[in-house]
Input
Amino acid sequence: MKIIDIGANLTDPVFRGRYRGAQAHTDDMAHILARARTAGVVGMMVTGGSLAESAAAVELCREDAGLFATVGCHPTRSGEPDKHPAGADGYFSGLRALIDGNRGRVVAVGECGLDYDRLQFADKAAQERVFMRHFELAEATGLPMFLHNRNTDGDFVRLVRENRHRFAGGVVHSFTGSADEARELLALGLFIGINGCSLKTEENLAVVRALPVDRLMVETDCPYCEIRRTHASHGLLPAPPAQALEADGAAWAPPESKRKERWSSECTVKSRNEPCMIRQVLSVLASLHGTGEAELAERVFDNTRKVFFSGIEHSF
Output
């Protein structure tokens, strides 16, 4: 059983036990990675959402052979490049240096794209300007793209279409769009990343059910985007302990969850998603597509390896 989580925000302080600047419990990164591997997660793409965060992602990946980084500037941080001491050119030179100095550990340009749900952080013009710089970066480095799109009224698709010749491939992660939008993205040769936020409503489930399996990838977007009891997808999860894929003869079940104030090394933290919970995403997808989880996992793994790891030595 092999699963790659294409979107794990492991540089978030909550994975070191810090919440809103306060240390609530001990650093439990090692426990998080161990739980992921017990669940069959053999690789994780650590998301870089800024120059500093990308550098932290690369540093984390140096510590574990199963971790790989993306390097980029999230659309909500599109105001950062102009504030860099050397301006936007210096900012993107810094991103380029991270890629060039860590070939084999950096597997994508991003997270980048457009987000019109949070224009209070960066206006449309700034987001588009920074997004365009990522196409330049992808073209210069030959890397695929890790893309973000939220309610952009066709602007995201337009920019990707206009620049599609500049990058080899990529995934639109955490997809929550319509069936029409999905068809447009698929027509551009892109893959679709699915997590708990992609599976909230019955409409979401209908869209995901129609997506071709050979264009799917799975992710947690942890510590966000867990499958919650209020989500339409929750009812598709099997009851414990028969919770997902068979691994070494034993069925996986989600670990017990406790509030951070009652932290235990054996438990996940309530409302803090983590990579092992990708098994729930996979379980829902298998149910929606009427296929076995092991078969689906193999096909999604092959999709991910083809796009992001075809030219990289790894031990998957």
